[in-house]
C-alpha cells in the first residue's frame, strides 16, 4: 500500500482524501482505527494500512453544549450543540466522530443502532479534515 507516503500521523492525510484508514496487525490480525504504530493487543509492529468502508452503526453518543476551541470556532455553543458519537465500523473497530444529520437539540430523536456512513468535513477556517458520520438514509 502507500505506507511510504503516509506514515506517522498520516491517518489525517488520508482523511484529506476522504479515506478512512485503519491498521491491521500482521501478527494477531487485530484491526485498529485510527491506526496504531504498535499493536496494543500483541505489541507486534508489522502493521499494514487497511481501508475501511466507512459504514457502521452508532453505539454511543453525547450532545456537546460546550465544546473544544475548534468546535466553538465552527459555530457550536450551548445554543447550537453538536452530537459526538462512537461508531462501530462494519469492519469491527470503534471510532469517534461528530454525528451530523441528526438533531442534537433533541437527543431522544437520536437512536443507538442508527446506520451511518463516514463523511469528511472541511471547515473553512482550518485546512484540516475532520471525520464525521451521517445517517445512511
Ligand atoms: Zn497484534
Report what the structure shows.
The protein has 2 helices and 8 strands; from the N terminus they run αββββαββββ. It is mainly β and 137 residues long. The protein folds into 2 domains: 41 residues; 81 residues, Beta Barrel (OB fold (Dihydrolipoamide Acetyltransferase, E2P)). The strands form 2 sheets. A 5-stranded mixed barrel has the order 4-5-6-8-7. A 3-stranded antiparallel beta sheet has the order 2-1-3. It is globular and about 50 Å long. The site of zinc ion (ZN) has 8 residues, from loops. Zinc ion binds next to loops.
Helix-strand layout with pairing:
Blueprint: H1 11-16, E1 21-25, E2 31-32, E3 47-51, E4 55-64, H2 69-73, E5 82-89, E6 94-99, E7 115-122, E8 129-135
Parallel strand pairs: 6-8
Antiparallel strand pairs: 1-2, 1-3, 4-5, 4-7, 5-6, 7-8
Bound molecules: zinc ion.
Residues 25, 27-28, 30, 39, 41-42, 44 line the site of zinc ion.
